[in-house]
Design goal:
Helices cover about 25% and strands about 30% of the residues. The chain is of the alpha+beta class. The strands form 4 sheets. The protein has a 6-stranded mixed β-sheet with strand order 8-9-10-11-13-14, with helices on one face. The structure holds zinc ion.
């Protein structure tokens, strides 16, 4: 694995959004006694070394959900935590087949050599430990709690940071909400999940694919879009293979809120 200048932005004191590759971010929360790495990207570059440069405490690695762009970098770490509701998705994301497909894409973009791809495909998985809703993590000056954010996937979780009052949402609450996937829950479940989350005490949120600190109020914009979903208000997208995907796109003060879904999620 070669060295690489990660694109790092400190969104709030001690909270860093680290862009690894093509808008794929990991979040580092640096407490006085422990740190959390939230997601681990594709693992294209040496993320572990980058993190070690930034902290001098023990590190806990947690996946927001099981998708490849959040977990393929897991091989760089000894242990990672994941909701077991995403165990199957994680397995598929980390299968030799998926790794090969992703390595091929990275190679075509000129980032991997053939040799890098071969190594990448063969990487061994870390120990996977279960993380459950309600888990409290004490980082010293920052206290975190794992919350249920099922929707984008069944095992999607959020991380509520109590002192800076910031919520990490992964892909479960964001401007580009993908709910068309077979593993995505119904629109109803997504609304319930986000409504419950909205009641929690936080002022800002961080979504996985953006280097932004969004105000909590923006969640209401996304919720409104979700609640008003109808085929009449949506356009059919033909760009995504294998799915009949509709998009509902509305403009908000914090960028367009886009929700991609398939018709049967409306039930
Ligand atoms: Zn995802």
């Amino acid at each position: 694995m070669f060295e690489h200048g990660f694109n790092i932005r400190e969104l709030y004191p001690s909270i860093y959004q680290i862009e690894e590759y093509r808008k794929v971010n990991c979040t580092l929360i640096k407490g006085t006694e422990k740190a959390i790495l939230w997601d681990m990207g594709y693992g294209v570059y040496n993320l572990k070394k980058q993190i070690e440069k930034m902290i001098d405490t023990p590190l806990i690695v947690i996946a927001s959900h099981g998708h490849p762009d959040h977990t393929l970098g897991c091989f760089q770490f000894d242990t990672i935590y994941l909701s077991l509701d995403d165990k199957e998705i994680f397995k598929e994301s980390n299968s030799a087949k998926t790794r090969k497909r992703i390595a091929g894409q990275i190679e075509r973009r000129g980032v991997f050599t053939e040799e890098d791809s071969k190594k990448y495909i063969k990487q061994k998985l870390p120990e996977i430990k279960e993380i459950t809703i309600g888990t409290q993590i004490n980082l010293g000056n920052i206290h975190a709690e794992v919350i249920d954010l099922k929707g984008h996937t069944k095992g999607s979780i959020g991380l509520l940071l109590k002192e800076p009052k910031i919520l990490l949402t992964g892909d479960a609450i964001c401007n580009d909400l993908w709910l068309f996937l077979p593993e995505s829950e119904s629109i109803k479940t997504n609304i319930k999940s986000i409504e419950n989350t909205f009641k929690l005490p936080f002022d800002y949120f961080i979504a996985a694919h953006k280097q932004e600190l969004y105000p909590k109020a923006h969640i209401q914009d996304i919720l409104d879009n979700l609640k008003n979903l109808s085929l009449e208000n949506s356009r059919e997208l033909r760009v995504l293979k294998n799915y009949d995907v509709y998009e509902s796109r509305v403009s908000t003060p914090y960028g367009d809120s886009s929700i991609l879904y398939v018709e049967d999620k409306l039930d």
